[in-house]
Amino acid sequence: MSGPLSGIRILEAGHMLAGPYCGMLLADLGADVIKIESPEGDIARRLSPHRVGPHNAYFASLNRNKRSVVLDLGSAEGQAALGRLAATSQGLLTNMRPAVIRKLGLTYDRLSAYNPRIACLALTGYGLDGPYADRPAYDYVIQALVGIMALTGDPGAPPVKCGYSAVDNSAGIMGALGLVAKILEGRGGQVDVSLFDTMLSQLNYVAGAWLNAGEPPSRYESGGHPYIVPAQIFETADGHLALFITHDDFWRRFAREAGRPEWLSDERFSTMSGRTANRDLVIRAVESLLRTGGTAEWVGRLAPLGIVVAGVERLEDALSGDLARSHDMVVSIPTGDGDLAVVGNPIRFPGEPTRYEPPPLLGEHTSALLAAGERP
């Protein structure tokens, strides 16, 4: 592989999402990521009903550009092989529970005997230590515990889960950052990243309002922003529109285009503070206006003015749209059984295209990595 991480070998003892996504991001950037799997393989290999030849679509979306080695880490032979791989690696990542991580020797304390400079990342639900350390954690549970569900949805409605695995993906990104930082330091050591801490950190300004002013977080209708009005989802004549008017200059452009000159002089509308103080009045007025036209019409009128606006699209429309196409964000990976479609890596280096290889078959590289003692 080519890329800024070329020449760096990282072992991944990961499953499902957070760990494999972390490893895939590093592999896309050129790292030699070796996925250590049990004889049964990552459960993600069997999770989705969709396949391209031997490749499961769920597994493929998280495991391209890697190599696979099968090890029984519960055996002496598996531990010896892990040690040999660790001796030639700069990093290791895992997203198992702390008790399992320690039992299988996937910590710096254990692997430093083979390589004192190896950086070991543990992606766990609640951290390697603490009262919750060995509780099982999934995306759903973390969203519930950290307050995301309580923040999501319309006022008075039941709590709502975010529509995709925001926790696992965010933790994977945070883990990649922490692991690369530790590798760059060059001294080796343990990196401890938890799903709970990751999501709590992402509630930054919402948490700051409570911590510094005692302002509890609230839900606002149609996903409204707590401080900016109007900034939410609006219904149009034929769909929905996301409108985000962040300052008064944008508001003036919006009011003129909408043919509402009175909104330029009425202090309830004309300033950010006025609009926030009169949220319901402003929202009702904008709702009434936007229902008079279709989504595409409003985007066509407002976007050229620099106003932050977009139609609420479906994923399938985004994947097939001009924006994704212009960024090469939908990639076809040739396999012997047809092309495998995946979403590309968002990190790009101009003039250095990302290389995409199929995900490994279970144990595909075991012989090459263990029998030959291959080095990076």
Q: Can you tag this structure with a few keywords?
A:
transferase activity, CoA-transferase_III_domain, 376 residues, 18 helices, transferase, CoA transferase, 16% strand, alpha/beta, elongated, 6-stranded parallel β-sheet, single chain, 3-stranded antiparallel β-sheet
Explain how this protein is built.
It is a single chain. With 376 residues, this protein is α/β, with parallel strands linked by helices. 39% of the residues lie in helices and 16% in strands. Strand 9 (231-235) and strand 10 form a beta hairpin. The longest helix has 20 residues, at 166-185. It starts with 8 loop residues before the first strand and ends in a 5-residue tail after the last helix. GO terms for molecular function: transferase activity.
Summarize the structure.
By secondary structure, this protein is α/β, with parallel strands linked by helices.
